[in-house]
Design a protein that fits this description.
By secondary structure, the protein is of the alpha+beta class. Helices cover 24% and strands 32% of the residues. It folds into two domains: 41 residues; 156 residues, Glucose Permease (Domain IIA) (Distorted Sandwich), CATH 2.70.70.10. Strands 9-5-6-7-11-3-2-13 form an eight-stranded antiparallel β-sheet. Strands 1-14-12 form a three-stranded antiparallel β-sheet, with no helix packed on it. Strands 4-10-8 form a three-stranded antiparallel β-sheet, with no helix packed on it.
């Protein structure tokens, strides 16, 4: 369980326990309700281990939940695909990095608290926006607050390296996570699919993309001989 779960779950759990032991009547009933509330909160902050796929080129789900959007979308003028995952209140709310790489930018954006399934939530709601460099190019993913989830929490900061499936933060009590991938990505999920953060594969990057990116010498603008050979007729 995530440590902050104790801060949220212990007060109702202990209050309920004391009411059950020392009270009768409606206070006893209140104790039962508080006890179950505490147990539910503990469940909400659960933090299970996951088996992370090791095959090269795979992109994993950044969150548990149901895929509600798979569509073409531009990011900073680049064509790509967006996958949106809706997290119900009973889902695991710990989020994970979709791929290995370095977080180049982490931006907090204050905003509204529209229902997480609302089409405008991706643009208008409070969110943390992670921009990450990978061997396959830049990807972007967002922790988005919802009507119930009023807090997005990042455990990482810009400049940190992350591994595929590594825990990067959480959103509290129902929310949404968006993932943007470059156009070369082969999307492997569809609307309505249920996914698990870190273990469910949502896309595959072609091997040629990694080879092409690896062939560029950082800071020189030169292209490797192999890449030049690939481009010759």
């Amino acid at each position: 369980m995530v440590r902050e779960g104790y801060a949220f779950g212990l007060p109702p759990f202990l209050s309920g326990f004391l009411l059950l032991v020392f009270c009768r009547g409606w206070l006893f009933a209140l104790g039962v309700a508080l006890l179950f509330l505490g147990l539910f909160v503990f469940s909400f902050f659960r933090n299970p281990e996951r088996t992370i796929p090791a095959e090269a080129g795979l992109i994993v789900a950044p969150a548990d939940g149901r895929v509600v959007v798979v569509q073409e979308e531009e990011s900073k003028g680049r064509s790509g695909m967006r996958i949106s995952i809706f997290l119900a209140i009973w889902n695991v709310h710990v989020n994970r990095a979709p791929a290995s790489g370095t977080i180049t930018c982490l931006e907090y954006k204050p905003g509204k608290f529209l229902a997480a399934y609302n089409a405008n939530a991706s643009l208008q709601n409070e969110q943390n926006v992670f921009t990450q460099s990978t061997e396959y190019g830049e990807i972007v993913y967002k922790q988005i607050a919802g009507w119930v989830a009023r807090r997005v929490v990042s455990w990482k900061k810009a400049g940190e390296a992350v591994a595929r499936g590594e825990r990067i933060g959480l959103v509290r009590f129902g929310s949404r996570v968006d993932l943007w991938l470059p156009a070369e990505a082969e999307i492997l999920v569809k609307v309505g699919d249920n996914v698990h953060g870190g273990s469910s594969v949502v896309a595959r990057m072609p091997e040629t993309v990694g080879v092409r990116n690896a062939g560029v010498h950082h800071g020189s603008g030169k292209v490797s001989d192999k890449m030049q050979d690939d481009q010759r007729p």
